[in-house]
Specification:
Blueprint: E1 5-6, E2 20-22, E3 32-37, E4 40-44, E5 47-53, E6 59-66, E7 75-82, H1 85-88, E8 93-95, E9 97-98, H2 103-108, H3 113-116, E10 125-129, H4 141-144, E11 146-149, E12 162-165
Parallel strand pairs: 1-7, 2-7
Antiparallel strand pairs: 3-6, 4-5, 5-10, 6-7, 6-9, 7-8, 11-12
Length: 166
């Protein structure tokens, strides 16, 4: 594993460091690499979102590395695919997901790009807004009801049994 800068050398692109490369119509016969990830983020206007795999597993983003040139260090760009249905509500594209079982196929070029760089199916991702207030989806029993100890009448055999009252 090596450290690299995210984005291409801006000297060769009018001062802009390109961070992504589209997968469509391209082949990547060399300089393939992987970016380990457990999530990626999206920004839409002033809102920020976290995107994770539905099962919570980590994954890799397909990427292409470029050698250091002059004073610009080793760098990489993430390969993108068309957004899947969940992400498409927010943006048009996202990084190409490489699952753990596909790592060697991507790095060793044993499977064609077209078979690996695909849009994931629906229900692949969980998207949550960062900094948003949590929404309570179920009643919190302990918060709404508190145990109260009351003595039963003397005729009862059980004394001080807990009861719940709102």
């Amino acid at each position: 594993m090596v450290e690299a800068v995210w984005g291409s050398n801006p000297r060769f692109s009018d001062g802009v460091a390109y961070r992504f490369v589209r997968s469509e119509g391209k082949t990547f016969p060399s300089h393939r690499c992987l970016i380990p990830a457990s999530e990626f983020h999206m920004t839409v206007g002033s809102r920020k979102y976290r995107v994770t795999l539905d099962g919570g597993n980590f994954f890799y983003l397909a990427a292409i590395w470029e050698p250091a040139l002059g004073d610009w260090p080793l760098c990489y760009r993430i390969v993108t695919v068309a957004a899947n249905p969940e992400v498409a509500h927010y943006q048009d594209r996202h990084g190409a997901i490489i699952h753990r079982r596909e790592v060697k196929q991507w790095l060793d070029r044993t499977v064609a790009e077209a078979d690996l760089l695909v849009t994931p199916p629906a229900r692949t991702f969980v998207i949550e807004e960062l900094g948003a207030q949590a929404v309570q989806t179920a009643l919190n029993f302990q918060r709404l009801y508190r145990p109260v100890r009351r003595p039963f009448p003397a005729s009862k055999s059980v004394q001080n049994s807990p009861r719940f009252e709102p």
